[in-house]
Amino acid sequence: MIDHIDHLVLTTRDKAKSIYFYTQVLGMALDTFGAGRIAFKFGEQKINLHEVGLEFLPKAAIPTPGSLDLCFIAGIPLEQVIVTLGRHNIPIIEGPVQRTGANWPIRSVYVRDPDNNLIEISEKATTIYG
């Protein structure tokens, strides 16, 4: 029945810091739509941004900044991701480490966004592991 994810919603305490992180650090495109709504687009997906206390309806029952744990597949080698994170003073909290992705083994680093959401950035692993 389900084919793929179209979008998800991220609730933030600080709109400007989120915009900077997702566009300048992660390289997503800023998209505005509707009546001043904001999203971060990448590939064929997007992340809609809600500000805590100003969420659009309908919304999650308990929209909470910092409750997401997301994994993104990078379009560049993980070593370049690490350099980019360093340039923006984003600390890596774990990695690079081997993980299991949805379709293949991945190699990942973990960081936190401005709302303390866990962000995993990965590349397809070149070797199979156990």
Automatic annotation (TrEMBL):
Q: Which CDD domains match?
A: GLOD5
Signal peptide interval: none
Q: Name one GO molecular function term.
A: lyase activity
Q: Which organism is it from?
A: Glaciimonas immobilis
Protein name, per record:
Catechol 2,3-dioxygenase-like lactoylglutathione lyase family enzyme
Alphabetized, the UniProt keywords read: Dioxygenase, Lyase, Oxidoreductase
Could you tell me which residue ranges the VOC domain spans?
A: 4-124
Transmembrane feature ranges: none
Does Oxidoreductase count among this protein's keywords? yes
InterPro entries this protein is in? Glyas_Bleomycin-R_OHBP_Dase (IPR029068), Glyas_Fos-R_dOase_dom (IPR004360), GlyoxalaseI/FosfomycinResist (IPR050383), VOC_core (IPR037523)
**Highest taxon of the source?**
Bacteria
Keyword Thylakoid among record annotations? no
